[in-house]
Design a protein that fits this description.
There is one protein chain. This protein is globular. 0% of the residues lie in helices and 52% in strands. The chain has a 6-stranded antiparallel barrel with strand order 1-2-3-6-5-4. The termini are far apart. It is mostly beta strands and 102 residues long.
């Protein structure tokens, strides 16, 4: 029993909370948009109206926060590891980063 301490995160990498716009490009080549809720060296959480296929590879472009020091977006290829509904129109995606793109 941990007496008031939060449960350990099973992900193994520290997640940084964000609220940044993100563009997702699916296997069909179409772009979808959402918000990156958190980011780590191994993955990210995105809230979007797009529902991808299980294990689908997505090209992800996370725009930097307006007050941040980074001026270039983060571009990566990521695999869908989870997708669940938040409400009737919004879904939360768990994405595992497989490659950082130029």
């Amino acid at each position: 029993m941990q007496h008031g301490l939060p449960a350990p995160d099973a992900r193994g990498a520290l997640r940084v909370p964000l609220d940044c716009k993100v563009r997702l490009r699916g296997i069909d080549g179409r772009s979808y948009y959402g918000v990156c809720a958190d980011l780590s060296v191994t993955g990210l959480t995105v809230r979007t109206m797009f529902v991808p296929q299980e294990d689908e590879l997505l090209d992800v472009c996370v725009l930097p926060p307006p007050q941040g020091g980074r001026t270039q977006p983060l571009s990566a290829r990521a695999r869908v590891v989870r997708c669940h509904a938040i409400d009737d129109e919004l879904f939360e995606l768990g994405l595992a980063i497989e490659e950082i793109l130029g």
